[in-house]
Amino acid sequence: MREDAAPPGSAPRAPGHLPLLGHLLPLLTRPVPFLQSLADHGPVVRIHLWRRPVHVLTDPGLVHRLLVQDAARTEKGFVFDQARGLLGNGLFISEGAFHLRQRRLVQPAFHRDGIRRYAALAARLAAAAVSRWETGRPAPIEPRMHGLARDIVVEALFATRLSAAQKARIDRAVPVVLTGFVQRALYPSPLLEKLPVPANRRFDAAVRDLRTVVDEIVDQAAAPQQGPDGTLLSLLLTTRDEETGLAMPPAQVRDEAVSLLLAGTETTATTLAWLFHELARHQDLQDELSEEVRAVAPDGAVSPDDLPLLERTGHAISETLRLHTPNWILMRRAVEPLRYGGVVLPPGAEILFSPTALHRSPRLHPDPSRFDPDRWRRPEGHAPPRLFIPFGAGRHKCVGESFAWTEMLVVTAAVLARLRLSPATATPLRESATAATVRPRGPLLVAEPR
Ligand code: HEM
């Protein structure tokens, strides 16, 4: 059979298939370009991970249908089946009626008043972090952003009741869990997870550690009169379901805390790291944003009311979320037959799409590989809002979207008001997609006082 030949009603197989491995090689060696290239072979393309067939949707309209109209006909898919037993059934992992109920309970923690409180907290932590940065010396931006994003989410979730040792344990565990989570999905059999090899041992230890720290913190906070006021955790512990009037059981609060920690640190940190790499390469734009920030807050400590005034900074963040969309693969599984572009996907079919690849389509974004925040000034410069999905869409759309936007604006303002960033070397900006997000691999950056 020719590479791309397929029976009527089924999806063509992508080129590059190898016996036994399927499409693992291109997916591991050049993940995002490989996923981008699939659009040339049709709106629905079949790839194989070992022998497991997975259907890739390459058409943004079909992805929107999958996430929104067909949400009730899908579940989250095989990556999450494996994760559930280890990481618990928090929002990021749960599905169906249970997910909808949990979502109703968690959502109030992200309403306006909460976000205003988290904005003040992010501004305080960002100012303290920036004042500690050594200037005039090349340094990597990624660990700075990871440390700051971790501190902001941890403090918003748990307040300062976390000891330095607990913070360090979270810090060590989160990257291992997020990388292992993706790598394990590519194992040919779940039996391999049981092998006592170093990668499995590291992953199991990181999961155990993360869960233990979160358990300790929830137990402290759940004790009478111990709950830190105004944290996400206290809201989760005290919130009542509007329909049933019931509180969330503590075991579920733990699962939600793990979910929020995992979903809320790496994504924001990676986006901010990409933004600062791009701004270091585009000095004029960096100056423009710095002026915008200083016009509303000379010391960079922006208040929640200032955020709508940071229009150009917002454009630069949107453009970063477009060109460097953190979540490079997302998944679903059909629970009822689905028909996309003449292809019928039976119940049980695994479905994958890449927000990063979709956002680089020239059909949606003219000159897609250019970092061009100006495109967000013109409707024709970018995709219509429903096809721009850095935070997903439908019932699983990111619950932390406003939190993330607030955090990214506040941190960007804190940095640009005080510092000028430049690349230390001419090292090109590259990407690496070995974990749950596409991370930058670029030059060290030098920060100088403005
Ligand atoms: C730039 C930052 C962020 C990006 C790009 C992002 C992206 C996403 C995406 C694409 C999804 C949907 C996943 C799917 O459909 O399978 C999602 C879900 C989620 N995100 Fe975010 N996220 C960000 C920040 C955050 C933050 C700061 C938090 C929490 C503090 C958070 C918590 C969650 C949770 C709990 C879910 C699961 C929602 C559900 O299924 O109901 N995210 N995120």
**CATH homologous superfamily title of the largest domain:** Cytochrome P450
Q: What hetero molecules are bound to the protein chains?
A: protoporphyrin IX containing FE
Please state roughly what percent of the residues sit in beta strands, choosing from under 5%, 5-15%, 15-25%, 25-35%, 35-45% or over 45%. Answer: 5-15%
Helix content: 40-55%
How many DSSP E strands? 12
Class by helix and strand content? alpha+beta
CATH topology name of the largest domain: Cytochrome p450
Number of domains: 2
For the residues shown, what is the average pLDDT?
90
The main β sheet shows up as: 5 strands, mixed
Question: How is this structure best described in words?
Answer:
The protein is 48% helix and 10% strand. By secondary structure, the chain is an alpha+beta fold. It folds into 2 domains: 1-88 and 328-389, Cytochrome p450 (Orthogonal Bundle), CATH 1.10.630.10; 92-127 and 139-313 and 394-450, Cytochrome p450 (Orthogonal Bundle). A 5-stranded mixed sheet has the order 1-2-8-5-3. Helix 7 (141-158) packs antiparallel against helix 11. The protein is globular. The site of protoporphyrin IX containing FE has 23 residues, from helix 11 and helix 15.
Describe, in short, the structure shown.
The protein has 450 residues and is an alpha+beta fold. It is 48% helix and 10% strand.
List its salient traits.
2 domains, single chain, alpha+beta, three-stranded antiparallel sheet, binds protoporphyrin IX containing FE, five-stranded mixed sheet, 450 residues, Cytochrome p450, globular
